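Office hours follow-up: a student asked to see two folded examples consecutively, so here they are.
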Amino acid sequence: MEIVNWIIDSLLLVVHVFFSFAPRLVGLTILASATGAAMLWVFGRTGNQERMNQVKRRVQAGLLELRVFVDEPAISLHAQRGLIAANLNYLALALRPALWMAVPMALLLIHLEAFYERAPLPLAEPALVTMRMTADWIPSAPPPVLITPCNVAILGPPVRVAASREVSWRILPYSPVSDKLLFRFNSQEVAKWMEAGDRQRYVTGRRVRSRWEAILSPGESRIRSNFAEWIEIRYPSAELRIFGLHVNWLVWFLIVSMAAALLLKKRFGVVI
């Protein structure tokens, strides 16, 4: 799975670098449009277009029948039953393309979080770094040692929470950073990449040890040391402004991708 994560991240990083000169919204809109076109192509290739076209005509005929025979209860009831059956048939036909697109879309959205969900740590503001220790951790033992880059300060000793096996540090970046935090414990080391500053960057999420959790937390390789389950930096949420309004990146992505698919369906010859 790490290879798949690396491939997806590499492709997205190329797009990110190419549009790094422009506002965050530009790259997201282009990615969403391309995704909408790709989804449309998959829908056309994996769906039964002839059957879907027939079902759509049946729905249109049922709606027309309801309008014409609005004063005929028996005919209206028959038309309503036909509409329900046609809609259920359409959903069944659309299920196969949806299943084909579900996994790729989920992976894409997970990876896009590093570009549009999280923002780098603000300068001169404290941030929290947390490590969950493995089950054999002894809370009374000395905690891991955190080594930071030269432009990141550690604010006080680590705080241990025995019930959740977590150790937390407060750090303070005072100049732009794109470097690793290093943790040492029992002659072992593990690192976590951090980003700080006001420039748009690729911001990785939680670094994990579990193979399955790595699917939901791409961006860095799995933890190989045997003393930590995961390491997380508490990043602020990235802001996406559209006409002066705060908009969640995922909402904008879905709106643009669906709009692109609807605008291109005739050109692709796809029935939706």
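And the second, which I mentioned at the end of office hours:
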Amino acid sequence: MKILGKMQRRATIWILDAFKTSLLEGLEAIAGLIPIKSHLQKLTDRSQLQSAALSSNHLIRTLMDNYSDTYAKLSPYSINLLTSHQKTITKGHLIDSNNKLYGVFPAFSPFHPEFNPGSRIVDLFPDHFSFNLSSREKNNKKCSQQLDEITLQLSSSPHTAIVVTDASVKKDIATSISHVHICNHPLTKTVHHAAYVMSTEAELFAIKCGINQACSKKDISKIVVITNSIHTTKKIFNSKSHPYQLHTTAILQELHWFFAKDQNNSVKFWECPSCLKWRLHQVVDKDSKLFIPQPILPSQISWDYCKMINSNNIISQWKMTFQASDGKGKNFLDLVGDNYEDIEPSYIKGGSWLQAFSHLNLLCARTTRAIMNHAPIGEYRLRFFPNEDFKCPCRNYPIESRRHILYDCMRFNGYWNPRRDSLCHFIMFLIANPKAFMFIDNPHSVTSN
């Protein structure tokens, strides 16, 4: 841990060009690097969950409790045969993995026949399905026009089913909705609720219900699935191991039967972003958001949801430690975001601070030094080099402090907005005053850096 801590410290100083005297916890937060201890805990949690991806006859799985099959024959070395006292005193990764998987419903099926090379849909029916992506240009109505044209063209055919799907998640409860239209009339409407699942799983379940309803109708030869999550539909035909195989295998079996029934049968997936507010999808989107979540009894959670919860717990613990600990330094400048709430550490998209000024290296260095109060100013020299001059060059203040530079010093009055506790205005102040928190006399000096 000591070696890893040194490595992390060198990395943050290199990224931010900060002073070597700066405290590590503050640098980690600005750089968007989660502490090493928390990162190792996150990797440990994920490795414990990873055993769920193993096949049921794998040696490790035979030693663990099989929560998904209560009638399965126990191995003579199964953890379930240990007494309560033995389980309490037994330590190890296998015991932790067994406890972690308790309450997580199975999601992996790597050896399902639908994923065997030569038996997959992509091998047997490569021309029976296709994907149509929308344009990513802003204010582009081409996608809406295409959807209107395709629905108008196919709505008169009794052999075509148009499936419109959507899903939403509120308070850990997912709502999956699919509408099936035949001959320009809404035929069926399926609504399903599930707790503790990810939005991707809810989308896949909505697609599964829609395809199942469409395939059950007689004389249907073409199915058009319209969804706002086209990347989710591509997971259906992904034969690699992923935590959505429970849903994809059901869809693949349905499509396998549908394609084998007639060589002219086909499925087309069309992308319809919610921002387009296309008429048929807007109805489904509205229905998915009308549901009001109600408290439910404890139930199993999905593998992907469990991974997200573990990650969120690590981040929450990091935030609490950062606010309560003195490791960031008592002189750390607490700034607020656009919502005027305190900025909290995060490693998403470069972190909460770095994404605001990482486009310029010099600005990044100046901002970091100012936030940490480890900058080439009199306040820093008074603390570490008391024999050097620490007066402000403006001669109106005895100490060149950070607060004096930000609010009072006449040398830096090129930015008028007083809200310099806001990150965006703080950055604008530094841009308007390029000499603030900057080496001036000797920019290559290493006395303080």
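Two things to take away from it. Residues 2-100 form one domain. The longest strand covers residues 160-170.
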